[in-house]
């Protein structure tokens, strides 16, 4: 099992649009993969957001669904810079 953490900065002028796009993306990812993601923001910086996707069995398939949902929702247009993805697995 793998947990994905995706973080990025949102453009200040597009924060509302970004929130709507992220919600659309999360819903599409859940429909496609069955995995319910969560959206959070930094406690000390409301423009730094993180998507959390737990317990992924097939990372390649999930990543393809996430990329498709991201493009369809238009979230990229609301982001300042790149999205960064970190993968975590259980400790042995």
What's the total number of strands? 4
- Mean pLDDT over the full residue set: 96
Into how many domains do the coordinates divide? 1
The helix tally amounts to 2
Largest sheet: 4 strands, antiparallel
CATH topology: Alpha-Beta Plaits
CATH class: Alpha Beta
Q: What spatial order of strands do you see in the largest sheet?
A: 2-3-1-4
Strand content: 35-45%
Shape: globular
Describe the protein.
The longest helix is centred in the N-terminal third of the chain and has 19 residues, at 15-33. It is built from 2 helices and 4 strands. The mean pLDDT is 96. Strands 2-3-1-4 form a 4-stranded antiparallel β-sheet, covered by helices on one side. The chain has a single domain, classed as 2-Layer Sandwich (Alpha-Beta Plaits). α1 packs antiparallel against α2 (59-73). By secondary structure, it is an alpha+beta fold.
Keywords:
92 residues, alpha+beta, Alpha-Beta Plaits, four-stranded antiparallel β-sheet, globular
Topology:
Elements: E1 2-10, H1 15-33, E2 38-42, E3 45-56, H2 59-73, E4 79-88
Antiparallel strand pairs: 1-3, 1-4, 2-3
Helix pairs in contact: 1-2
Summarize the structure.
The chain has helices at residues 15-33, 59-73; strands at 2-10, 38-42, 45-56, 79-88. It has 92 residues and is an alpha+beta fold.
């Amino acid at each position: 099992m793998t947990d994905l953490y995706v973080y990025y900065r949102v453009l200040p002028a597009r924060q509302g649009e970004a929130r709507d796009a992220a919600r659309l993306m999360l819903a599409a990812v859940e429909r496609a993969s069955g995995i319910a993601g969560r959206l959070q923001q930094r406690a000390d910086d409301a423009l730094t957001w993180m998507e959390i996707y737990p317990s992924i069995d097939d990372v390649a398939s999930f990543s393809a669904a996430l990329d498709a949902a991201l493009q369809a929702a238009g979230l990229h247009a609301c982001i300042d810079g790149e999205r960064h993805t970190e993968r975590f697995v259980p400790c042995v």
